[in-house]
Every structure is written in C-alpha cells, then in structure tokens.
Design goal:
- It holds the Pfam family NUDIX.
- This protein has helices at 90-102, 156-165, 171-186, 203-207; strands at residues 11-19, 23-31, 37-45, 48-53, 59-67, 72-76, 79-81, 104-116, 125-136, 150-155.
- The chain is α+β, with helices and mostly antiparallel strands.
- The protein folds into two domains: 10-44; 47-197, Alpha-Beta Complex (Nucleoside Triphosphate Pyrophosphohydrolase).
- The strands form three sheets. Strands 7-4-9-8 form a four-stranded mixed β-sheet. Strands 1-2-3 form a three-stranded antiparallel β-sheet. A three-stranded antiparallel β-sheet has the order 6-5-10.
- β5 (59-67) and β6 form a beta hairpin.
- The termini are far apart.
- The model has no long low-confidence stretch (mean pLDDT 94).
Length: 208
C-alpha cells in the first residue's frame, strides 16, 4: 500500500445514469489504496458565478428568491449558471446575472473567492466576484421564480450579522459576504478577473 497522501485515484470505469437540463449523474469505479475499487456517484453540474455588488455607501445588492427544494425564499447574491455557451466567460456570465437579477452594471470587477460547493459528490464550483462603481440599468424582463425577485440593499456589516445569526443561509451568499468582510478587514489584494480558476467544471458542458 502506498504512503498516505501519495495514492493515485485512477478511474477504472465510468457510466452515465442520467442526463438532464442542468446536471448529469455519473457512476465511477475508482481504485482505492490497497488495490480494491469503490463506486463513486458524481453529479456533473454547470459551474456558476455570483456577485457581491457594493455601492458607494457600503451596501450590497441582495435578492430574495423562492427556492423550491427547500420551499421558502432565501436572501441571496445575484448569481447564475455558466450556461451561456463556450463563448461566454465567467466574468461575462457574472455581468449578465447582475443585470438580469438586479438591473445593475459595474465598472470595477475583481475575483473575491472561489468555491467547490460539495466536493463529496459533485464537481459543481462557483466563482464569486466583487463588483463596485455601480450604475443602474433599465429593468430586465423576468420569468418564473425570477419574476418574484425582490432586490434588497444590505449594509455589509448587517449582512455579516445575518450570516452569523442564521438569517442568511445560502452557502454562496454566506461565503461571499464573509469573504468581502475579511478582505476589507485584512486589506488583502483581490485577484484580477482573469485569474486562473482551477476547479471550473467542464464535464457537463462537454456533453452539450
């Protein structure tokens, strides 16, 4: 058996159980330390982007949106899937989502934080941007759940308290809010928008 931390987890076989509009379920047989193989269920998913859009007063734009799997509205960041095709960059997708969900554009963009959402079973990953120097756009046409969106401007300090009190529970929103507060407190220089994104998902898009 190899030393801990040195084993190469080779996929010996793979099959697709399901392919839908936004995800696929793949079953892999993966070689474990000691030589046996184990079955791993993998949900392939589009990557996604989200935006911490902060105005000159230090408030961030958040949307209250109905989420059917949990049956209630959540306070979230403007966000969406990387489903615009191979010609759309993650930054362009973030700009599109900010316009579609919050009727906003921004002149200054930086990478705030990268996330792998639940790496125990899915390759879904998400890049959160910080957008500043905001300006208003004409109201977008919205359908389905997005037609019910409510835009709320929340001071960053209040958003931090709402994360810690359990009022904001969306994982992307919690990560983005706390990362923005941590960057402010530490003075950390944020990455440029073309910074490498190691875990950007590609498997599901390659099926299209």
């Amino acid at each position: 058996m190899s030393e801990p931390g040195s084993h190469e987890f080779v996929t010996r076989s793979s099959r697709t159980e399901y392919t839908g509009a936004i995800l696929a379920l793949r079953i892999d047989e993966v070689e474990m330390p000691g030589g046996r193989t184990a079955r791993r269920e993998v949900v392939e998913h589009h990557g996604a982007v989200a935006v911490v859009a902060r105005d000159d007063e230090g408030r961030i734009a958040m949307v209250r949106q109905y989420r059917h799997p949990i049956g209630r509205r959540l306070l979230e960041l403007p966000a969406g899937l990387l489903d615009g095709g191979p010609q759309e960059s993650p930054l362009s997708a973030a700009q599109r989502e900010l316009a579609e969900e919050a009727d906003l554009a921004a002149d200054r963009w930086r990478v705030l934080v990268d996330l792998v959402v639940s790496p125990g079973f899915t390759d879904e990953a998400l890049r959160v941007y910080l957008a500043e120097s905001l300006h208003q756009l004409h109201a977008a046409d919205r359908e389905d759940e997005e037609a019910d969106l409510v835009l709320e401007w929340v001071p960053l300090a209040d958003a931090v308290r709402m994360c810690l009190s359990g009022e904001i529970v969306n994982a992307t929103a919690v990560s983005g809010v706390l990362a923005a507060a941590a960057a402010d407190a530490s003075g950390t220089e944020l990455r440029a928008t073309d910074a490498p994104w190691r875990d950007e998902p590609t498997a599901f898009a390659a099926r299209r």
